[in-house]
Amino acid sequence: MRSQFPQSMLDRMSQVGVIAVIVIDEAPQVVPLARALVACGIDVMELTLRTDAALDALRLVRQEVPEMMAGVGTVLTKSQIDSIVDAGAEFAVAPGLNPDVVRHAQSVGLPFAPGVATPSEVEQAVELGCRELKFFPAEPIGGLKYLRSMAAPYMHLGLRFIPLGGVSAANLSSYLYDNSVLAVGGSWLAPRKSIQSKDWSSVIDHATAARRLVNESIKK
């Protein structure tokens, strides 16, 4: 089956390698954050719906930093799908697999990657027409070794995974070398405390290091 993500979006995610996963408490903070990430070559972000500021932050990114591809994470309900589409989300992901939410995202044309952690969930997602899947929680459940074993029977279907949960600069390259991995979710690039304290220099350090690792992975 054909991917529900446009090829241009898949190419961009693959090239960036690390999708910045963001928890934002005050919407205005997202503008300097997004600009810092883009300057370091990280131009895809996932704003999680864990705070009330997330939707306003999404609108600000789309208005003020249009070069950033902005999606939304922690999408748990159909009503959230409607809200994030109205706010300009370019894609969405979820920690788990809710068929009703997947179908609603499809009905409004929103590229959506549900979360999976077991073969049964992979098969459910495939039945729903999904080809891009969030692998969560990646490291606690067994990491890349587990992902390879779980994904092996399904790779002829063209599945691609976005691992998140315990992924860091220490294991980033290992994930990116695997053909089943589209990109990883990078929550370590901009920790919540760094955003709250407006510590953009540490964000730049993390993002620059991640970009270097991605570039090295691409060369190899």
Describe the model.
The chain is of the alpha/beta class and 220 residues long. The chain has one domain (7-219): TIM Barrel. It contains eleven helices and nine strands. The strands form three sheets. It has a four-stranded parallel β-sheet with strand order 3-2-1-9. The protein has a three-stranded parallel β-sheet with strand order 6-7-8. It is globular, with a radius of gyration of 16 Å.
Superfamily (CATH H level) name: Aldolase class I
- Rg for CA atoms: 16 Å
The CATH class turns out to be Alpha Beta
Into which percent range does the helicity of residues fall? 40-55%
The major sheet is characterized as: 4 strands, parallel
Quickly count the helices.
Answer: 11
Structurally, the number of domains stands at 1
Overall residue-averaged pLDDT value: 96
Strand content: 5-15%
Distance between the termini: 30 Å
CATH architecture field:
Alpha-Beta Barrel
